[in-house]
Amino acid sequence: MNLWLSITMLCAATVTSGCLFPAAVSTMGAVGSDAPVVWNHWGDGQGQRYCMARYDDVVAAVLRAGDALDLELKEKRVDRNRAFIRFLDSENERVDISVDRRSETMTAIKFDVGWFGPVAFGRLVDQQIVAELNKP
Question: What pTM, to 2 d.p., does this model score?
């Protein structure tokens, strides 16, 4: 009985909240962190995170994350509202990071490792970005 109730509640939450359901589930892991974040995996080697953080701070955190993971900075384009950063690992696997200013205090981060790239690589870089944002 409890299993059916749990499944029913999960289905109801998914149907009634649409794309916000991953936000509710993902924020459970962010409790206690300084920068509130919401993460969503799109599939096809892509994922996205929204952060309650300033654009300039997020761009700096992306660059520090690349340094912390000892990745090669292959490309960097930073404009007023959008940044594109490409990192390579020692096996020439790439991760593209796009940072978009959504408001003065909200920023979107998208990672893309390509159709056949390792999604775990993108998720690790993404997690390191959040760790860099939360450093004092």
Answer: 0.72
